[in-house]
């Protein structure tokens, strides 16, 4: 079965079944893509279709096709799928397979009801235009996206399919293994088995290929699971496209430290506000950087990061490039210039300055159009060809940077989850508090003058495991966490080193207790304080625990 989907993803023969307008459009699309292998129209009573010899029946083909497009409907489509399956075809695209009765006729053969685009293989199995062009290497996407690709190099786009090998785990593994795929994006409506995502994430990390997940309205546990898999979560399809573009061009970012320029006062203010909302940081400028920038600016605008650069687009040659290079010379890992409502000449001047600055210091430069419509496919391709990173839309562009930073700090090793038991219906839950609960964790009672730190909350989710959250809007993770990961999580929750140390102590105590209880813990709520000598202390603690035999439940 794995061989079938392998053939389908890199077909050397494609059967086009049916003589309607859709089939003609598919043949035209294959030709436009530059597909050079066998195209076999199957239409009874016709000698040629689009200048290609036609066969009357699938059984007349010289061998089973690697892929097929079925243009019929109802019983005709079902019969064609059944015949393809019986012959041993690699797979099929069949719009009529949206009807489950039609799809079932394919048996275990891979079948897709939506368009399949494989530009790296010069294949497009869709009667509708996609705007995609053949590429030697690009990103792969699993899931149907209704987005303008805006010049993004795409190697493969596959919708959800049916039959063997069409789940997102086997398809994702197939695509990651291909040299022509640089990164993988998943557009999911639901997450499915947590272990599948962990397995896909582990393989992506082994191959050094970024994994991005678009899952609208993801729960806290699902967000933590994506992080655990070494992937990054994005909020919508537009952000997925921009994030894939960014990691295709430069990969993950090693730090949350940007240099920013707004090419108008409004663009600068928008950039600063929206970056703050996404927890993106602009690198502090050193005294030497500030002095050099002030000398170049000559009072036009104060040196700052982000910089208001509207007056600089039409300044003397080389000034904007020098300022961009000076902003790169510190701790920033990427320079971002935002343009709003710019004329073509402004784009050209900004691109020339960005390319010159990049050539001088070798650091990546991204040009962001506040209005996504200004970053059309032609402009995006031209900027990428010049060695710059095009980003379309303020929200999607900044979301892409957030994802690249998250990928840069993702765990380098995907580890198994600590899972709660699945209690039988009617299983009782006991609540433990007071001195008994504190003794279970090995933490002291907080004194009346001990300063409060945060609330720790642990929830047992059957789908994702134990979800730990520090503070109302603080970091979230799944257990178990390594000592280093616990320390990093505590530092994100509390910046003060002594407070972070106490939080980490409490998290380790909670994790040790949950591990020892072998899945019986249903939840924990704890109000942490900074106790005597900097130790963690508890102002309040409640433990919820299932009553029963965990091992017996696991055997049920």
TrEMBL record:
- Please provide the Gene Ontology terms (biological process) for this protein: tricarboxylic acid cycle
Q: Name one Pfam family in it.
A: CoA_binding_2
Keywords, in A-Z order: Tricarboxylic acid cycle
Cross-referenced InterPro entries: CoA-bd (IPR003781), NAD(P)-bd_dom_sf (IPR036291), Succinyl-CoA_synth-like (IPR016102)
Domain called CoA-binding: residue spans:
8-99
Q: What is this protein's name?
A: Acyl-CoA synthetase (NDP forming)
